[in-house]
Amino acid sequence: MSDATLPAATAPARRDGSRARGESRFVQFVLIAVSLAFLLLFLLLPLVTVFVEAAARGWEAYRAAITEPDAQAAIRLTLIVAAIAVPFNTVVGIAAAWAIAKFEFRGKNLLISLLDLPFSVSPVISGLVFVLLFGAQGYFGPWLQAHGVSIIFALPGLILATVFVTFPFVARELIPHMQSLGSADEEAALTLGASPWRVFFTITLPNVKWSLFYGILLCNARAMGEFGAVAVVSGKIRGETNTMPLHVEILYNEYMGPAAFAVASLLAGLALVTLVLKTLLEWHYGDAIAASRRH
């Protein structure tokens, strides 16, 4: 049946979905206004405040705050932790997504549930678990200390905590996309004699490259901004185990507001860069990314 022969009552519904749902323009206006007010009050205003306070005392004060030795150590440590945690989670996330999307095996549902564990456990609790396992009084702490290995209050503890809280991002972006693509292309390549690794690198990975980049982007943003788990395992040793979020807290607690906002502006800038890249991805590659959310 063509659109011209549709009953008159159905035509407005296709042109205006809100009318079919019985929503007036006033209701639409109220919903949009409430949403914009929420974004302005709880998201945009705090972000603007960070940059305004960071620049309140001029460029020299800002530069001094972010070039101060402890701030430089925090920035360097944050980059090191992210540089290790993000590639690790990328490799493991790809492997987990490939296994879940392309194969059937016993324990598959359990693996899927474990992927979501970091989302359901408080980061503070996860940090405490690492302390109970690897701390001086933990299950493995005495043995590690006897062999000269330090995990808690050291770089390995920060990496472990960051890996745990950021683990799901890459896998969770890839699994639905891989499932939506199916296995027809891979099976055809295998039939033609391609090796499994060649199939993976020439077919599977290129097909999900934008979802992969999207997952890496989110994973990196969370890794640099993580506070709860890192705060528990770091000991907050200034200049040694402080990441940028922890350094901001210390500066603010010491009533060094401008310096705290200066360092916080770097994290806020990271958030804006992440948002811009995310928007560009969704704009240019919306179809591919939308496919990763169909299931």
UniProtKB/TrEMBL annotation:
* SUPFAM superfamilies, sorted: MetI-like
Q: What CDD domains does the record point to?
A: TM_PBP2 (cd06261)
Q: Does the keyword NAD apply?
A: no
Residue stretches making up the ABC transmembrane type-1 domain: 75-278
Q: Where in the cell is it found?
A: Cell membrane
Q: Which Pfam families match?
A: BPD_transp_1 (PF00528)
Q: Name one GO cellular component term.
A: plasma membrane
In the bilayer, the protein is annotated as: Multi-pass membrane protein
Quote the Gene3D superfamilies the UniProt record gives.
Answer: MetI-like
UniProt keyword Ubl conjugation, yes or no: no
GO MF entry, a single one:
ABC-type sulfate transporter activity
Superkingdom classification of source: Bacteria
The entry's keywords: Membrane, Sulfate transport, Transmembrane, Transmembrane helix, Transport
Write down the InterPro entries for this protein, in alphabetical order.
CysW_permease, MetI-like, MetI-like_sf, Sulph_transpt2
Principal cellular location given in the protein's record: membrane
Which parts of the chain span the membrane according to its record? Answer: 26-52, 73-101, 121-140, 152-171, 212-234, 255-277
How does the annotation summarize its subunit structure? The complex is composed of two ATP-binding proteins (CysA), two transmembrane proteins (CysT and CysW) and a solute-binding protein (CysP).
What is the role of the protein in this entry? Part of the ABC transporter complex CysAWTP (TC 3.A.1.6.1) involved in sulfate/thiosulfate import. Probably responsible for the translocation of the substrate across the membrane.
Question: What name does the UniProt record give this protein?
Answer: Sulfate ABC transporter permease subunit CysW
Originating species: Bosea spartocytisi
Q: Which gene encodes it?
A: cysW
